[in-house]
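Exercise: predict the fold of this chain.
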Amino acid sequence: MPTFHKDPLKRLLADVRAHEDERRKRQEKHEIAYQQALVATREKIKQTEGPDMKERLQDQIRQWFIECRNVSQKFPDFPDEDDGGSNKIFEKKTVEEIQEDLDAKLESKGKGKGDKKGKKGKKGKKEKKGKKGKKGKKKKKGDDEEGWTLPESQFVTEMMKPSTQTYQSFWETRDESNNFEQNHDNEIVKEEKRTEVQEEIRIEVDALMREELKNLKAKAKKKKKKKEKDLTPDRTIESLYEELVMNRIIIRPPKVTLNDFLGDFNYLPSLIRQAKHEPMPTMYDVKQLTALYGILPFGSEKVHEIAPQVKGLLICGPRGCGKHMLLHAICNELGANLFDISPQNIYETYREKEGIKMLMHLCSKVGKALQPTVIFINDCEKLFKKKLKPEEKQFEPKRLAKALPKWLKTIKPGDRVLLVGISHEPYQGVVKPMMKAFQRVILLPRPEYGTRLLLWKTLIPKYGGIITPALDLTSLAKLSDSYAPGHIHDTIVETLTERRLVKMSKHPLQASDFIPGLAHHNAIYKEEEDAYKSWWKKTPLGKKRERFLEDQEEGGGDGKGKKDKKGGGKGKGKKGKGKKKK
């Protein structure tokens, strides 16, 4: 507080000193807040914006790698940190100019000091000439009547130019009328610290990208593998196609579309999860997966370039669930050629090791020439079984199993060739080699109530039947539980004969008409369904799903435990506290 003096001068000096002390304290306070803001803002920017900065910079540098390689057919040299690192890359220059600068730098390393001396000599001569010219000009100015005027200082102008530009561009137009306390500006701090964080991240990214570039160059230096020999150089694609058709390798799929595959939604997944059970996928889910894995990536060249490459697709499930129907739907939707290289289809025409080698060559050559192509293996689990039955050994599926991995390596990004395996007993094969051949798996489940009801409603009118109130479709849907869609289809075809259709006007269809036909088929028993589930858990996708569910359960359990410890109910919480005190 200012002290009161009788002398006005002393009183004024005391007030000035008091205000000065107060101002200095406030400055110290603002300085502390400013320093704290510098640290806090830097950490915040590093945590929130740092990962995006790092990813963006890596993408830009990788793009530069690719552009340089496209221009010069080789990977560029990464600028040293002394030269600015990646900052050198992002100067306002083209890729060709950057590459020329780097090449010039490598060439200049071998030159001696003589060039530098020569440059210095030239500079000295130029300076001397300049000085002589200036002296001559001064002599001419001596006759001026106005007298000597002070010339503008070039040194001071150049020295003040950055500060003047900074003031004019930033501070001159800045409104500080609301900042009475003169606190620091958070936006200025952010801009300052963002630059520091960017530089720090740039150095880290440069180190990583140097290692990545080193690995890329090492891979590029490796000897390229010999190209696959063309076993049929003198034959045309037409003649090879004709051979495959005559040998029944290329077959025409039945006219089936994906819309013909019937399936309904699962309307109760949340209730099933509440009961701590994982809901099984429905036929509608299968339909969607088929479109995502087997149709969309191969239907367009542009989509195929963008989408992740899927070389192999395994469609498995109980008999009669529609595995072959999905295969034919994929071919028809894509307009693709269908190659059947199942062991039982090729054992007569392409025998021994050379025969299999020729077959895989024909599939590769013709399939890539006439894209899109679907290559199909029926009962593909036999290729990966440890022990084959005597009746299975005659087809020698192991020959194809040895040739398949090598052939899959020949499918490069951009080749619209899809390998489709169909299996009704996938659990008999060894999981690891099977999953190497087929990266994606579609497991067809037992149809649920909604799908069964949809099948009865759709297929009965399709084959001439008339649905009347006498026909209890709800009972049929419940009775047909554990039966595959193929069983329901065959039952309807067997029941709706011409004789039964004639009598339908007098004797309408009833649920009892379909029961005898349904009883002739084998149902999908729980043991078989459990075998599929246990096999699915061993696959990579199944393991990921199990891990995800376990993490969810652990997260839910931890939350409950924390609530119990804190005392979810009042009485329990108080008792717990009393025991701890004792």
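Check your answer against the key: The chain has a mean pLDDT of 80.
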